[in-house]
Amino acid sequence: MEKKDNLFSIGEVAKYQNISKQTLIFYDKAGVFRPAWVDPANGYRYYSASQLDYLDTILIMKQIGFSLQEIKDHMQHYDLDSSLAMLRRQLDVIDQKVAGLKQVRRRVQNRCDQMEAARAHCAPGQPGIELEDAPEQELFCLPVEPPYTMREISIATKQCFARAAAGALPVFYQCGVVVPLEKIRAGQYTEAALAFLPMERAGQESCVRRLPAGRRACIYHVGDYLSVGRSYEKLLAWCGEQGLRVCSDSYEFCINDYLTTHDESEYITKIAFYVEQT
């Protein structure tokens, strides 16, 4: 018992540091923080008072973002110079993470803004059709293979997300398709030629379509995708009534889709044509 007089049990250390006993056992097995003494009779772990400061250092370094292996290697022998160098390196890592989180936040904010705008446009009493002055926009595009059914559209969309993730491309959390105008004129409303993901910036990336700034006629289609034809007919008729000539393919932006609802009747698709006054 004399061996334990000036030691803390694993339960006491866990309580003081507000961590679990399992964490301390894991640190022991990983060779990062071993007890000062292990009772040979029962295997209970005990720690010295001086070790509590050492554990503080480990927990703070974990909070800063160091891995256990980095902590273990560093604490084999550390002093002011080595600690300063390691912390400065970690500042660079933190800055990169902050920049990444800011980028993710912009994309989530963009998705929220579009969903809120769509909900306002689709509210009862709203016309549902508008003219907008669209800014320049860049789309990461991949072709949809024949026969251009929903299956091929889904495959092309998944390939867009996979390629964007592999290349760390700055795409928004949104997808869409391009439907050729001749297909629309022929009533083949769901035969998309391209799947796309809107981008923050393209850089030198290939497979990018750059949309110019310009006037676009837009409608928000509510419902499953196969019923999109009724919104196309309404939008084309409205353009004719307003003396507007459609001068581009159709750009469909998924606003509320499988990412944000399980009910296809709640899907919202923004359909946009570039138009000119006749």
TrEMBL record:
Name of a matching Pfam family: GyrI-like
Domain of life: Bacteria
GO molecular function, one term: DNA-binding transcription factor activity
InterPro entries given in the database record: DNA-bd_dom_put_sf, GyrI-like, MerR-type_HTH_dom, MerR_fam, Reg_factor_effector_dom_sf
Gene3D superfamilies membership: 1.10.1660.10, Regulatory factor, effector binding domain (3.20.80.10)
SMART domains assigned to the protein according to its UniProt record, in alphabetical order: HTH_MERR (SM00422)
Keyword tags: DNA-binding, Repressor, Transcription, Transcription regulation
Every HTH merR-type domain range: 7-77
PANTHER family per UniProt: MERR-FAMILY TRANSCRIPTIONAL REGULATOR, REDOX-CYCLING DRUG-SENSING TRANSCRIPTIONAL ACTIVATOR SOXR
Protein's name according to its UniProt entry: MerR family transcriptional regulator
Species, as recorded: Candidatus Faecalibacterium faecigallinarum
Organismal lineage: Bacteria, Bacillati, Bacillota, Clostridia, Eubacteriales
